[in-house]
Amino acid sequence: MRFRFFTICLILIYTCSCTSTYKNFNPQQKFAVPQLQQDFTLARNVLEKIHPTLYWYLPKDSMDMYFNAGYKYLKDSMTEQEFNWKIMAPIIHQIHCGHTSIRLSEGYEKWAKNKVFASFPLYLKCWNDTMAVVANLDSTDRIFKRGTIIKSINKIPANKIINKMLFYLPEDGYAHNVNYIRISNNFPALHRNIFGLSKTYTVEYLDSLGTKKSTTLKLFEPKSDSTIVNKPKQKIEKDSIKIKRNEKYRSLKIDSSGKFAVMQLNSFSNGGLNFFFRKSFRTLKRKNIDNLIIDLRNNGGGYIFNSNLLIKYISRTPVLVADSIYSKVKSLKPFTHHFKMGTITSWGLRFMTNRKQNGHFKENQFESQLLVPKIKNHYNGKVYVLISGPTFSASTLFANAVKGQSGIKLLGEETGGGWYGNGGVLIQDLVLPNTKLRLRMPLFKLVQYNHKTSNKGLGIPPDIYVPTSYEALIKGYDKKMKVAQTFIMQSLEK
To answer: What total number of domains does the chain contain?
Structure first.
């Protein structure tokens, strides 16, 4: 209850805060070396003092080495974007915390909104050491169709391109699946920011017969001041707007066969989940739906009390979610004013933690909370939980809590959220004083209860492994959903 009250306070303060316009923002502004050094030093000091999992994957001397190397690289003035990609992003990656990331300033994001930038022209689906075309910004091109395998770009092999991009992105431990998705969704932008722009690109690919060939692609250059054109908004009733907005976050659809239902959950923060769960499980019981697919593949997490509520509807036995949850500090001092909501967050830390143990401040609400299955409308049928790289944070807590229980199977690929645990619970933005880059970081360390592994670098593995399918990519169907439905239909035939 205390955590829910504090969360509501944060939301109210954030939504009521004033915003500024950025019409005069200059993305080419250079910051002098002393300014960059000040921002870098502040970020390092805050991470060392406050970050709860800074040394979870790398020992202090290794992190010090990366910090020192980054500082020494600050020899010339840089733009905000250069400082972000050349200096900060590779260092943040080394923390191996999926909730710790560096973002461009609010000014930059507002300036860049709806703009189209020059870039490498192909969107590529990337997994392991493979890259395949999924979209082409050049509408006149007839070579690079959906599914074309790319072997190299400017003589850099596909596996080296992917591995270098991974080096700039945050992740829990070494669970790369989430970043394969990020790379796939943002390949042109990531390639531009990490490898730079070229007037032309030499691309090696496999033709329809599997023969390696090479050609030259031109840089995709939008028209001057090109922007994404938004279609005029049509007048829609308020109730319809709310329904459509909620459906982005959650939905329940019963198959026409009446044999199974699919619950899509893309967030544990939005969509009025308390009401949605109550209504959905009442419907499933009334209609005697004995098979349920819960799709968490795009669920990046959210409020723990919502994931805990779903556990109560699904779990066959009482469970604990967290073995331990604690913070290194009880206040953000002396850095309070550098955080976006520093004062209220410091107050919240004191509110959420109530005792010190082994030099840490423990948060006891979730750590000691035994989740007892609901009696009313509890779901007792078979459950297939679809998981993938973007299954993260609170959705990982749910997946771990139900994994191995009777009648429940995890299907898909390893989660991006850590199986052993992660930094999370309360996450805030540190705003660097000069460049205004935002360092997003957690304030608590959470170790999962009954995580079944001592390897902190893994995500949660599925019980039924369904990897990325090249055939599904070509034909445009959902392989993981199809496998889950096949299991259900086969079980009904027995």
So the answer is: 2
Q: DSSP string of 264-287?
A: EE--BSSS-HHHHHHHHHHHHHHT
pLDDT for 198-240, tens place per residue? 999 999 999 989 999 999 999 999 876 555 555 555 555 555 5
The H or E element that residue 126 is part of is strand 122-127
CB atoms within 10 A of CB 128: 12
Q: In Å, how far are 97, 173, 182, 214, 408 from 185, measured between CA atoms? A: 21, 21, 5, 24, 30
Q: Clarify whether residues 269 and 150 are in a common domain.
A: no
Sequence-ordered strand ranges (E) for 336-494: 355-357, 360-362, 370-371, 382-387, 408-412, 421-431, 438-448, 464-465
Up-side HSE of residue 441: CA atoms within 13 Å toward CB? Answer: 28
Q: What is the mean pLDDT of residues 16-45?
A: 83
Residue 167: pLDDT over 70 = yes
Q: Is the pLDDT of residue 19 over 50?
A: no
Q: Which residues contact 174 (CB under 8 A, 6 or more apart)?
A: 96, 457, 458
Same domain, 181 and 272: no
How far apart are the C-alpha atoms of 322 and 366, rounded to whole Å?
7
Q: Which residues contact 228 (CB under 8 A, 6 or more apart)?
A: 114, 115, 116
Q: For 367-411, how does the pLDDT look when each residue is reduced to its tens digit (9 = 90+)? A: 778 899 999 999 999 999 999 999 999 999 999 999 999 999 999
In terms of domains, do 287 and 406 share one?
yes
Contacts for 341 with CB less than 8 Å, ≥ 6 apart: 10, 13, 14, 428
CA 398 to chain centre: 16
CA distances from 379 to 311, 397, 407, 415 (A): 10, 19, 11, 24
CATH code for the domain of 213: 2.30.42.10
- Is 395 inside a domain boundary? yes
Report d(CA 148, CA 209) in Å as an integer. Answer: 11
State the pTM of this model: 0.88
On whether both 394 and 300 belong to a single domain, the answer is: yes
CA–CA gap between residue 70 and residue 67 (Å, rounded):
5
Query: What residues does 125 pair with on adjacent strands?
Result: 132
The residue range of the domain holding 214 is: 122-218
Do residue 364 and residue 255 come from a single domain? yes
CB 292 within 8 A of CB 281: no
Residues 313 and 418 occupy one common structural domain:
yes
Nearby residues of 232 by Cβ (< 8 Å), 6 or more positions away? none
Calpha distance 266→251 (Å, rounded): 9
Q: What CATH number corresponds to the domain at position 395? A: 3.90.226.10
Q: How far is CA 90 from the centre of its chain?
A: 17
Amino acid at 364: N
* Contact call for residues 350 and 331 (beta carbons, < 8 A): yes
CA distance 418 to 14: 29
- The answer to whether residues 306 and 204 belong to one domain is no
CA distances from 444 to 292, 327, 431 (A): 33, 5, 19
